[in-house]
Amino acid sequence: MQNCLVLVTDNHAIGVINVRAHLRIVAVLVLLIGGAVAAVAQTKTLAPADPTDTRIPRNSRVYIAPADGFEQYLAAAFRKKSVPLLIVTDRDAADFEITVTHDKEQASWARIYVWGLLHGSASASLQVVNLRTKVVVFADSSERLVALRGERSTAEKLAKYLKRRMEKDEKKAGAAASQSKARL
């Protein structure tokens, strides 16, 4: 009867409790609750909470605003360049909104005859806004003076730049997290 607690009232034994078994159960419950709290805290750090935070987390939902058909080129470029975003068709379901402008010019007669260039030029700009904080988190532009595929090539260039920015932000977040763990 080591590590047991005997409950006694009026010199009569009511029950015997195995203290070691109960301590094991309490220890397991404390570990489970602590792990759950840590997991919830870790998932909450993925979404930007600070209004000045300009990160775009992986698998964020984005809405691409209509732009005279250029949004189709941009969505296709996101798929081709494997940009880790979920494109949604409902603005209310999105975390971020992407607005784009684009311009495509045909080759002028001087360009064709003087320089021998048959292809026109294309330019586009992209802006990503966090819908919760209304902060512009990313903006870039692309200009192709000799655009063989015009809108397609400018959309792919913008997608590549956005993906590069997201990967850079993930590296920074990972480095900051490892530094904070090292301090503990």
Integer tally of domains: 2
Classify the secondary structure makeup into a structural class.
alpha/beta
Look at the structure and give the CATH class of the largest domain: Alpha Beta
Query: Order of strands side by side in the largest beta sheet?
Result: 4-3-5-6-7
Q: What integer value in Å does the Rg equal?
A: 29 Å
Q: Indicate the low-confidence ranges by residue numbers.
A: 43-48
Q: What is the string of SSEs from the N terminus onward?
A: EEHEHEEHEEH
The description of the largest β-sheet is: 5 strands, mixed
Which second-level CATH architecture of the largest domain applies? 3-Layer(aba) Sandwich
Q: Count the strands? A: 7
Number of helices in the DSSP assignment: 4
Distance between the termini: 41 Å
Counting copies of identical and different chains, the oligomeric state is: single chain
Indicate the CATH topology of the largest domain: Rossmann fold
Q: What is the 3D shape?
A: elongated
Strand percentage, roughly?
25-35%
Average pLDDT reading? 74
Helix content: 40-55%
Provide tags for this entry.
Rossmann fold, alpha/beta, five-stranded mixed beta sheet, 184 residues, two-stranded antiparallel sheet
